[in-house]
Amino acid sequence: MTTSVYTLLVRLFWVLEWEGWYFTYIALPFGWKASAYTYHSIGLAVTCFVRSFGVPCSRYIDDRHNRQLRLPSPYWRFQLAEMAAFIACATFIALGYFIGIEKSCLVPSIAVTLLGYICDSKKQAFLLPQDKRVKFATLREDVLSHKTVSLKNLQKFAGKTTSFALLVPAAKLFTNTPYHIISCGVKLANTQLRISSELRQELLHWRFLDSWEGFFHWKSERHIFSLSAFSAFRRFIHWIGGWGGVSTFQVSLHWSHVGFGKRPPAAYPSL
């Protein structure tokens, strides 16, 4: 059987050259560190194509979230969402994508799982699933039950609390101590780290998540304005050879009602 050059070029996905040797691939290797970025960048073309039909589509690597069809018509919202799902699925399948039925939600819903969290379009917030809440509590209590913690477990705990920034207001303010201890442990090559009083206090703080039923509203779009400050500091800036500016922006208003003190000012000057 003879294979044409055209068939080989169609099957060829990318080529790697190393010391005069050429390695050809028809798929992305899972272990290559740039695979996720490459797959995401190529898939953006498909995402833009779906958007051209009026289907809002958000994407992260191989996960997509589609919303109801933007169509000025008398259809119900559920019908518009069904249309969007059909358009998206038909497009992906026609382009050769494989859709994981078990991990997908093909029936429109106001609360779907996206990137491990519940995306609730009615509350306009991300919610923590119960299974993730239980796993986090188990890890936290296991760390608290010992006087030392392994570097791997502390890194796992810090990663989870950082990811909660989409769910819990000011979550990153209570991750400083774990990351500080992790950095010290990496520098000293310690696999077992002592649980200090500051770390224990921060671990205990996260117990509130076991019974917390609140949620963190999605942030609204903000516009940033940058103003040059050459008029007042022209000679000084010219002398230091730099640039000065004043940035004004609005901050989120959730601080005023979540118990973290007074709301910060609405504008910050910076040079």
Structure description:
By secondary structure, this protein is of the alpha+beta class. It folds into three domains: 1-106, no CATH class; 138-215, no CATH class; 219-271, no CATH class. 38% of the residues lie in helices and 17% in strands. The protein is built from eight helices and twelve strands. Strands 5-6-7-10 form a four-stranded antiparallel sheet, with no helix packed on it. α4 packs antiparallel against α5. 9% of the residues are buried.
Structural class given helices, strands, pairing?
A: alpha+beta
Order of helices and strands: HEEHEEHEEEHEHHEHEEHE
Counting DSSP H or I runs of 4 or more residues, the number of helices is: 8
Q: Can you give the mean pLDDT?
A: 75
* Total strands: 12
Helix content: 25-40%
Unreliable parts: 1-9, 229-233, 242-271
Radius of gyration equals: 25 Å
Rounded to the nearest angstrom, the distance between the terminal CA atoms is: 70 Å
Strand fraction:
15-25%
